[in-house]
Design a protein that fits this description.
There is one protein chain. By secondary structure, this protein is mostly helical. The chain is built from 15 helices and two strands. The protein folds into four domains: 2-118, Methane Monooxygenase Hydroxylase, Chain G, domain 1, CATH 1.20.58; 122-215; 230-325, no CATH class; 357-440, Butyryl-CoA Dehydrogenase, subunit A, domain 3 (Up-down Bundle), CATH 1.20.140.100. 78% of the residues lie in helices and 3% in strands. A two-stranded antiparallel ribbon has the order 1-2. Helix 7 runs antiparallel to helix 8 (199-229), helix 8 packs antiparallel against helix 9 (238-259) and helix 10 packs parallel to helix 13. The longest helix has 41 residues, at 2-42. It is elongated, with a radius of gyration of 50 Å.
């Protein structure tokens, strides 16, 4: 029983020993490679400032990581000590390397300090070069900042589309300048120089962040406009536009808390307001009986031109009219369209009535023969009177210009019909009265 327990315990030790050995050897190799890599870097004699920066950075890394490296080395040595204590098989050469690992690191640190002392004169020379580069870079940033204030994405003079383009350009520029700034700050640290600040670059970055918020919303709104622009006017649901306008107006009010007064916000705000103001006018046009001649009038009065085909008319064409700038004119044209539609409907009713109206005949026996005469029809006479009255009202309307020719035609036609009927009955009445005399008298016959 005891022997079995010992065997199981040994098996357990062997398994854990293997894991400990793998981890120890792996970390040993890693530290050896790092020491070797740093030693190769220290052997360089850099002729240029960029190579010197790499070397000085390596020296700084060695100094800064000494405490952490000592912990790592102690951990490796403790693993190998534990393996030896429990009589686990360990490669002798690797055990020896682990034992002197702390010595190798101290030697490297000493080499780094020595190399740093040897580079003092070189560092002084390149420190002056770095100071010159920093001064030149600060001047470049100030120039960029001045240009940004005058011609940047937040300039009052530019359009939102141009501002969106400029924002991307200045984001790329600030990224490039930040890389340069980071390199110079690293050089100042390496050469023990005071760390410079670049407030203008910070200001540009902060303003870009503000601009990013505004122009992101602009891109979203512009995308919605593009989607809506492809809608056919004949299939337009103006409620969709109203919902979109209300959404954008809420956004405008929310942004005002932080951006009110900013030129870019004011342009975006105006764009949203104009769009919202145009919605009632678009709805007026949509629900009025506007025809092609009214579209032509809208184009003429707004100074806009596009190929007019009511069937293929899209919302893009309507947006081009900038209706929000002409509310009174749009209302006037819609009123005109509605009244003209009523007038045209009245004329069309008259036309349709006379396409189907018939005169009734009655049978009369004279001299043993059947004769047909026009039957008196008061309804027709009343209809004529009503239609002439309605035509007079249409003719007196200020919205009759488009149909004046048709009105005049039907005024003449209805008067002619009325006169003809009157004369017909006069002649018919006389004929009935005289017919017996002429047909009954042999002398007259």
């Amino acid at each position: 029983m005891i022997s079995k327990f010992k065997n199981e315990a040994q098996e357990w030790l062997d398994k854990h020993g293997k894991v400990l050995k793998v981890l120890g050897e792996r970390e040993l190799l890693q530290i050896k490679n790092e020491v070797l890599d740093y030693r190769e870097r220290l052997a360089d004699d850099p002729p240029r400032i960029d190579e010197l920066k790499v070397l000085l950075n390596s020296i700084t890394e060695i100094k800064d990581m000494t405490m952490m490296m000592e912990f790592r080395i102690f951990d490796v040595q403790e693993r190998f000590r534990t393996l030896a204590m429990y009589k686990q098989h360990v490669d002798g050469e690797k055990a020896q390397e682990a034992a002197v690992l702390d010595l190798r690191w101290r030697e490297l640190v000493q080499e780094a300090k020595l190399k740093d002392n040897m580079l003092q004169e070189v560092k002084k020379h390149f420190a002056k070069v770095t100071q010159s580069e920093v001064a030149e870079f600060q001047f470049s940033i100030k120039s960029l900042f001045e240009q940004y204030q005058i011609e940047g994405p937040g300039s009052p003079e530019i359009t939102l589309d141009k501002g969106l383009q400029l924002l991307e350009e200045y984001k790329a520029k600030t990224l490039e300048f930040n890389k340069k700034k980071d390199g110079l700050i690293l050089a100042e640290k390496l050469f023990n120089l005071p760390i410079s600040t670049f407030p203008e670059l910070v200001s540009i970055e902060q303003e870009n962040k503000k601009m990013q918020v505004l122009y992101s919303h602009y891109s979203e709104i512009k995308g919605s406009f593009a989607d809506w622009s492809s809608m056919l006017w004949s299939k337009l649901d103006s409620e969709v536009l109203k919902v979109g306008a209300d959404k954008f107006d809420k956004l405008r009010k929310k942004l005002a808390n932080e951006y009110n007064g900013h030129p870019t916000y004011e342009k975006l705000s105006l764009m949203i307001k104009e769009f919202k103001d145009s919605i009632p006018l678009i709805q007026q046009l949509k629900y009025s009986q506007i025809s092609e001649r009214h579209w032509e009038k809208l184009m003429k009065n707004t100074g806009t031109n596009f190929d007019l085909n009511v069937k293929s008319l899209t919302l893009e064409n309507v947006f081009k009219l900038n209706l929000q700038n002409y509310p009174d004119m749009v209302t006037e044209i819609c009123t005109e369209a509605s009244n003209e539609a009523k007038n045209e409907e009245e004329i069309s009713k008259i036309e349709q009535v006379w396409k189907s109206t018939n005169f009734e005949l009655s049978s009369v026996i004279k001299g043993g023969e059947e004769t047909f005469v026009l039957k008196s029809n008061e309804e027709v006479k009343m209809l004529l009177e009503d239609q002439l009255t309605n035509l007079q009202q249409v003719a007196s309307s200020k919205y009759v210009a488009a149909f004046l020719k048709r009105v005049r035609h039907w005024e003449q036609a209805l008067n002619r019909i009325s006169e003809t009927i009157d004369q017909w009955f006069i002649v018919q009445k006389k004929w009935i009265y005289l017919e017996g005399i002429f047909t009954g008298s042999d002398d007259i016959r």
